[in-house]
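QA checklist item 7 of 12: single-chain prediction sanity check.
[x] sequence parsed
[x] length recorded as 265
[x] structure emitted
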Amino acid sequence: MSGGADRMLTRVFFSSGRVLDGGIRATRGAVDGFWLGLLGPRQVARIDETYFEHQRMYLDEGYNRQGLWAWERAAIDTFFADASRLAVTGAGAGREVLALLELGHDAVGYECNEMLAEFGNDLTIASGYGLRIHAAERDKWPAPAVGFDGAVIGWGSYMHIAGRRRRVKFLADARSALPDGAPILLSFFARRGTSVRFRAVLRVGNSFRRLRGRDVLEAGDALAPLYAHFFTKDEVAGELDEAGFELVQYATEPYAHVVGRARGR
C-alpha cells in the first residue's frame, strides 16, 4: 500500500473503534433507560435488597473490620477532628461505624437494610461497643439522628437516592439536625457532562415515565448496577448549598466525594 492509503486505513481503524465504543455506551444507556422507565420505587428497593443478599462481601467480617478507605480517613482527620459524635447513614454492616469507633468517635449508624444492620450490630456488640446500628427509612434522614456533631453519609449511598428533590430534602433534614459548622461527608460517582450514555437514558427512560405519569429522569441517572445518579461538581455543590451546607472540599480521586459544612442559620 502507498503511504496515503496506509494513513487512511489507520484513520478508519481508529474511527471504527470510536464508533463502536459510542454504540456500546448508547446501548448501555438505552437498556438503563428502559428499566428506569419501567421500575417504580418499590421495585428499585427490592432490586437493592436482592443485590445485597447476593453480594456477600458486605456481610464479610474481614471486609467490615478493615477500617476507612484512605480518602475517608483523610477527610475525617482533616474536617472532623472536633466532631466527636457522628451519625452514619447508609451504614450497611458497619464498616464506617466500627472504624470511627476505633478512632475514638462516638459513631451511631442508621441502615434501611435489616440484614445488613443485624450483621453490623453483631460486630459492634462483639467489639464491646453495644448495639450501634439502628433501623432507618430508605432515602430519608433518620428522625432519631439528633445531637450529633457531624455526619458521614455511608460510602456511595447518597447517589442511590433518586431525584434531586429527595436528595436535597435528605440533606436539609440533616442540616436541621446538625449544629452550625458541622461537617458532612458524602461520596458518589462523578461525571463531567451528559455523555451519549446519559442522553440515551433520558431519551428512552423518560418516554416510558411520561406515559406512566411519573417524575422524569435527570441527566446523570443510570444503573450501576443499582440505581445511581452520577454527579457533576456543580450539581453536588448546588444540592449542598440548597440544603444549607457550604462546599469545603471536592475530589474525584480515588473516589469522588465532598465535604460540606453547615452554614449558620
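[x] summary fact logged: Residues 30 and 103 are 45 Å apart (CA to CA).
[ ] second reviewer sign-off
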